[in-house]
User: Fold this.
Amino acid sequence: MVIFLNKINLNVSAMKKTLLILFLSVNTISFANESYERLNNSDIILSKNGKALEVIFDTKNSSPVFKLIKLGEMLDMDFDYNTNESTLIVNFKDYSPGPYILTVDDEYKSEDVLIYVEEANIRVIDRRVFKKPVYQFKDNKFKIKVYENTTLVDVVIESLHGDVLHNKKYTSVELDKTVFLLSEEVGKCVVNLNYKSKDFTKAIDLL
Assistant:
């Protein structure tokens, strides 16, 4: 199936989302005296004093990007962490109590770690790993492959001016069989995907 994308003048203000991502401010901190305890079957380690978190990640293909958001608050915060080639250490000692989401983002996957900070310690509530979509290009056509077989994928394609060119839900199998063809009038677009409650955005220029 080939989907032709032409410019459509629609009011899409209702579809616009504001995504708050608090970019990180790096501070050098010392954990020389910390002792870490590995969680069962996990690459996340909690310090024995309960206030620091260590995440071991894979950097064979790219350097991860780290983000931290406190749920329910629209406030900037300093993300106090230390990192080397394979490990991220976050000290929550001076953070106010409440739920936080730590995101470790690399080229092929993204992981969200839901953390609850208490007065005396921190708790890892949940972890979710998302495989990122893969794009294949040829001439003015492209395909999108999503390696999450049990989920529906919301596909919204917009022009650079925000006009909606395509809006449909697909299974991963249906999406794998779909070819998107950009008209010469459009040439450039922004692809917004949502699956497993996670947003992925890709700007495409096929000119």
About this structure: Residues 172-176 form the longest helix (5 residues). The radius of gyration is 20 Å.
